[in-house]
Amino acid sequence: MTGWLAIVGAVLGLVAGSFVNVVAYRVPLRKSVVRPRSACPACGHEIRARDNIPVLSWLLLRGRCRDCGSGISVRYPFVEAGTGAAFAGLALLLGPSWALPAFWWAAAVAIALTLTDLDVKRIPDRILLPGAAVTLVLLGAAAFLDGEPMAWARSAGGAAAYFALLFLVALAARGGFGFGDVKLGLLLGAVLAYRSWGVLAVGAFAAFAVGGLVAAGLLVTRRAGRKDAIPFGPAMVVGAALALAWGETIAGWYLG
């Protein structure tokens, strides 16, 4: 059963990844994510349905527009494949659980926010706030259907706790820490705490560890200066992914 869920998740993730690309590109530009249809930015021709199959179409077209031959960024198939892998991994992690749709939804939202933070150094409320709200609703329904009502209470508490922690960090940083990152704690805190408090703790620690390592690497290689803004959202998402995969093991080892 879990294997079939992983296959279904991979397919859904590929489709979701295609839409995530659209959201990440259009929302910062304040454009609709529904209309108009996707088009080549170079020649303006609408992308045909057969050229919009995740990953496969990019490979068949050799990364170029069918009409004008302009190059299509390799980021698009990478995001699609990455989202598919994330969905499959979550299916393997959770198995046949009612919480799986909530985790899939949260993963897609987190990937979209990672892309916008890397592109424009901003975490748009138009993606984050509805994404976090829907995640909490789906997790509440899952907790009821799985017969684990305390899981939702823990999830809501985790969202509040991660938000509060990051809010204190932002106050201490005096402008050196974006409030978008603080609000991202609502989404990630809800998902991590649904698993356990230990997973949430590992995810928060991993976020700062990854963020610190990336910042140090950028400074050492002089790709960023001390006053440059370095997106922290991607580090939070990577930390959350690491915690979901190995958080229980790490927390158990540390407490032991």
Characteristics:
mainly alpha, 9 helices, 2 domains
Description:
The chain is mainly alpha-helical. It has helices at 2-26, 56-60, 75-94, 100-120, 125-145, 149-173, 179-195, 197-220, 233-255. It has 2 domains: 1-96, no CATH class; 98-256, no CATH class. The mean pLDDT is 91.
The stretches of 5 or more residues where confidence is low (pLDDT under 50) are none
The biggest sheet, with number of strands, parallel, antiparallel or mixed sense and barrel status, is: none
Tally of individual domains: 2
> Number of DSSP strands?
0
Please report the distance between the alpha carbons of the first and last residues: 33 Å
Morphology call: globular
* Count of separate DSSP helical elements: 9
What's the mean pLDDT score? 91
Give the structural class.
mainly alpha
What is shown here, in short?
It is built from 9 helices and no strands.
Secondary-structure blueprint of this entry?
Elements: H1 2-26, H2 56-60, H3 75-94, H4 100-120, H5 125-145, H6 149-173, H7 179-195, H8 197-220, H9 233-255
Helix pairs in contact: 1-3, 1-4, 3-4, 4-5, 5-6, 5-7, 6-7, 7-8, 7-9, 8-9
